[in-house]
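Slide 14.
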Amino acid sequence: MENALEIAGLCKRYAGFALEDISFTLPRGCVMGLIGENGSGKTTTIKAVLDLIGRDAGEIRVLGLDNVRDGCAVRERIGVVLEDSGFLNTMTARQVDRLMGKAYAGWDSARFSAYMQRFGIDGRKKIKDYSKGMRMKLSIAAALSHGAELLLMDEPTSGLDPVVRDEVLDLFYDFMQDEEHAILLSSHITSDLDKIADYVTFVHQGRLLLSEPRDELLDTYGVLRCTADQLAALDPDAVRAHRTGAFGCEALVRRDGVPQGWPVERTNIEQVMLLLTKGEEVR
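Slide 15: predicted structure.
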């Protein structure tokens, strides 16, 4: 069974910013959280996968297909949610239904209507009259209504209250009951990724810092709060990143490289991201 997404050596250069040598693989049956600060290259990566921007180097395969050469076939098999829905603000949800029915051979109007009812979307109102959260829910409903095998999502839970975010995550769980499916989910809400992600891919200032199974990442690393002398006494190979403040040091460490009895705390995705971004990376 081919992977859902394979990116090898992706490069995209702009004036003042460069996405350099991004490589990772998303297996089918898995959810990958794509994390990084604003401007790190997450959206650029997703747009390159969608062939919305040309790439300077690298290869991208989506569901076993070349994302450029086989673009039409790829678009039929993926669902997309971007921060900008892509629908005209003057359209209504009912008009979106008719438009998508013409765009996708697998479009299911009944499923779309069910999602609109579940989300409380008024199909008669124009999109410009929706809140940001309601526009996002409309995009999610559209992405889930044409038999997609891979969902590509850029901040899909942004602007949603906690109750609706949980409802959306439940939809993603339902989608993932089919082991052929996969999700690439860019998000600043790392607590959502703690719940649903199988893999974590971290892009920082245009370069890839890590792409690993979530459980393996969180089992391998922990957070050590210690003095500068204690930090200096550790094997450098055990320290991934650290930062020093007025009250001591905080370090992202390999658990197996820290002496027994030292107070290593369990970490989470947000702490990993903050220490690798704000701290001094050792390697």
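Speaker note: The mean pLDDT is 92.
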